[in-house]
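Example complex used in Figure S2.
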Amino acid sequence: MTQDPLVIPGVNLWAIAPEMVMVAGAMGILVLGAGFKKSHPLILMAGALATLLGAAIAAILALGQGSGFAFDGTIAMDGFAGFLKLVIIASAAVSVLAGYDYIQRERAAAPEYLGLLMLATTGMMLMAAAADLITVFLALETFSLALYVMAAFRRQRLDSQEGAFKYFLSGSFASAFFLYGVALTYGGTGTTRLEGIATSLSEGLKPGTEVLVFSGLALLLVGLAFKVAAVPFHMWTPDVYQGAPAPVTGFMAAGSKVAGFAVLLRALYTGFHELVTDWQPILIALALITMIFGSVVAVAQTNVKRMLAYSSIAHSGFLLIGVIAANQRGLSGALFYLGSYSFVIVGSFAVIYAVGRAGESRVELNDYRGLWNRQPFMAVALAVMLVSLAGVPPTAGFWAKLEVFLAAVEAGQVPLVVAALLSSVVAVFFYLRVIVLMFLQEEEWTKEVPDTGATSGLAAAVGLAVVAVLGVYPTPLLDFARQASLVLFR
Amino acid sequence: MMPVTWVLLLSAFLFSVGVYGVLARRNAVLILMSIEVMLTAVNINLVAFNAMLKDVEMMGQIFALFIITIAAAEIGVGLAIVILIYRNRTTVTVDEVSLMKW
Amino acid sequence: MHQYVFVVIGVLMAIAAVRLVTTKNVVHGALYLLMVLAGAAAIFILLLAEFVGWVQVLLYIGAVVVLLLFGLMLTRAPIGRTALDNQSRALAALVAGAIFAMTSMVLVRAFDGQMIDFSQTLTVRTLGGVLFTKYVLPFEVVSVLLLAALVGAVVLAKRDE
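Predicted assembly (753 residues):
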């Protein structure tokens, strides 16, 4: 018997170039950490940043290589993936900066921290490009497993362990639903490739099978809704946000939202686009309760990390509006939203870590009283970023919300936009409360020497700069997002 | 020849039993076991579809292989977290692990 | 012939699964899980997925169940209904029942009358060929995932100096 040669179809290493750089860098850092016990965290951090820079260059170069599918349609190479990969890389880089102070202050294991962060980044980037539900699942698990562990990084802290534990259980439960959804879709359409699903849906299925594929999609949505923290699948969010070290929380909030929405957008805009009238009502209901619940419950929080957790739930609701619009503006708006939100949330958690002091003991609202007097720069940075989260002009958050809402109006979803505006107004209240506390209230305790780490300050400065620049001049990123969104509308 | 619905119904039943286990159990290790039952149900489903569709690309079987691999990795990390908690608290009962409330 | 084997295995699996989620003894739970997983391996082999069946035996029964037993022993789980079940059993049963009713309805509607043909030949050779050509990228992603899991488990398990 002769052996047939194994021919790998559609090899195009450009499609995975950034991921390859990241994995190589992660392994390098792990080996360096294991081989040289005394290697200074600064060297490791520099290595991580250099790797991220390399990955960013690879992603930019890949943008110029045309768009299409690689590796037999398991992965896509297009502007959409490129845009989101760059967003993920940028927020990972800011998280590395914020994490350095954490490593220094708490004597955390630097190589493992950075290695896991980079492997998680790899998984998120693969999510942004995955064009096959099998690849989606594997990428999802890659970054989830890394994040479960990073959430438990404060190993002596009970709340850290508890958060990680809840994150793990709800995450694996959600994965099981996701998988059942993939299985049903496979049974109905005979494929797991998004493009194949689109083809077989447009060719028309038997009536019974159509219901089956739709049920599969519904289960898929349950799994993804867990990841992006949409109500009623949000239960883990506040506990995990509170328990994880603040720099990890920022990274998790940015990265899992970008990755989750990347898959939601790609799957719903391409693979399942034929079923648009079926999935729109579900997502509308989901978006409504998500943004209202998130905004209202955030008002009742006294812990800043929990408050931002509910705020992140509300932002998932706003992002869902961009998905629901199902037009090109919705897609580019959602991309812009993800880009600006990532910087803001990573930057905010860097400030929270800097204010938190040893063991993050100061994360209650009252601890922010008179922050302006103690750490003026941190107070200004946080204030600007909160204003952006609230969506007040002229900040990046304002343009993001505007784009998404206008897209929904174009799609005829006016009631939804009205509800979104109302919950934005509620949200302004709790963001403003923190700002008022920081600037107008006197400190209650005696002055202490602030031990703000330098790199936390740098991370906060990056967040601040991005918010301010995009607020005044959003055009370049908006154009990039528009360019990136074209590819899903061929 | 055998009707494919038999296999699919078995898998749906196992999946639901797994869901019940996750929601009704308090012990962390038992919850992990219930999640394994859910994943096994999915695998049975995938393999059955693969046989029914006579898929030459064998997507169903290959996906099942990936799921088995990942389930093992997931259990490894999950048990590590469970044991970490047990070391500090000597309980793995889920609702006793609740410092935080919304 | 195949049908009868399937029915016997299926019924045993269903009973074992139900016992797993209701048993009052955690170690019995692990044994019921073993039954479910072994039954699944038999069904895989029956459904022409030989390789998946043997991987299931090696990885699931060989590794996962042993790992879970270790977990049970190390955490000394208590025994008895109140210790193992929470108060929301009725709600859980409702949710599970609803999922079963809906999925089985959808599945029966979509696939009623479709048959599995046991005479087809899908060999391990084809499986391997496809895995290392069309699925080579997912395969590589799995290796990244395993690296993350490995590092993660070590981080969590190691004691502080």
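Strands of chain A lie at 68-70, 75-77. The CA atoms of residues 189 and 197 of chain A lie 6 Å apart.
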